[in-house]
Structure formats: C-alpha cells, structure tokens
Amino acid sequence: MAILPKGVKHIPGYLDREAQRALVEAIRAVVSQAPLFQPVMPRTGKPFSVKMTNCGSLGWVADQAGYRYQPSHPITGALWPAIPDSLMRLWHEVADYDAEPEACLVNFYADTARMGLHQDRDEADLAAPVVSVSLGDDCLFRIGQTTKGGKTASIRLASGDVVILGGEGRLVYHGVDRIYPATSTLLKNGGRINLTLRRVSRPR
Ligand code: SIN
Ligand code: FE2
Questions:
Q1: How far is Cα 124 from Cα 185, in angstroms, rounded to an integer?
Q2: Which of 39, 67, 88, 101 could cross-link with 197 by S-S, CB 3.0 to 4.6 Å?
Q3: pLDDT tens digit string along 140-156?
C-alpha cells in the first residue's frame, strides 16, 4: 500500500483477476437494470466525457439543475439496483467505518474520456471515506490539495486497484488526466470502469 499526499491510500492489485472478472459481471447486471446515462454540467449543459450509472439506495447524478443524490435513475425512474455483495464486503474490509455505503457511482471511461480535478463534497457525511475501485484499462490519476490549486501528484491506476480518500484526504481535489487504451484485457471492448462507494447521509 502507498500513502499519497493528505493520507490518501493506494492499494495496488487489491482485487485479483478472478475477483475483477466477477465484479465486472456484477456491474454488467447493474447496468442492464440501470443503463449508463450521459451526465451534463450544471448550467452550461456541457456533457461529461464519462458515462455513468449507480447502484445503492442513492445515486449521484449531474444535470442542468445541479449535482445531487437521488434514489432513482434519471431516465428510467426506477430505483437503483442494490450494491453487489462483493463491494459491500470490500467497503467493510477497507473503509474503517461502521455504517454501510449508500451509493456506488459507476463511471465508464472510453479511450478519450477524462475527469477534471474536483472534490467529492455532495455527501452530508464527510467522516466516511470515498472508496474507489478501478477495472479495465489503466489511467493517470491525479490528486491535489484540499483547496483549489497547489501541488498535485499523479499515479497510474490499474485494474483491481483500490484508492481510499479518507480522513485528512477526504476532500482532496482529484481527477483522471487520461486513459491508457488497451492496457488491460478485462473488458472485452476496452475502456475503464471506476466504482466509488460513498456514505451519503450521517448515520443515526
Ligand atoms: C471520480 O472522481 O468520480 C472518479 C475517479 C476515478 O475515475 O478514478
Ligand atoms: Fe470524485
């Protein structure tokens, strides 16, 4: 495990190939119930380069009206499917947090997709970490400070890697500068999937 700036943790190869394959199957089942949709930036309406969906009791959405968590899919109106058991177990193994995650955001990156530097701060409970799992092609992941600007560090994330944004690092700026196409054979048609598990509401 590597400790990055602000105590962000990177665990390379947390999931072995078999666990990655099983997780891809579970995510395929999620996507068949909750199709990937195209988020857009609030106000400008500019599309993200990633497509997304969610599982869990809440899902993160981005549209003209803003960023928020909601219990249902923005297109189908159906409740999000449940978070796969293997991800619930992973959370309890690494999150060091008693309450269950409520949302798992599924981001799909095609070869040219990227994600600008941002903070994950739409959650009422900032005591819980955000736990990220990478599947498929490698990417260049960048983390910065907890305020805008300043020094950043870049690491390459590979399939099966876990990153934990918690504690002092819960609000670090982070983003994905690029995908390295065809660096993994896990996904038949290439690309990268990132899963982020989040606790949204404060546990009672
Ligand atoms: C995110 O910040 O939502 C995604 C991070 C990643 O793709 O690794
Ligand atoms: Fe994020």
A1: 38
A2: 101
A3: 999 999 999 999 999 99
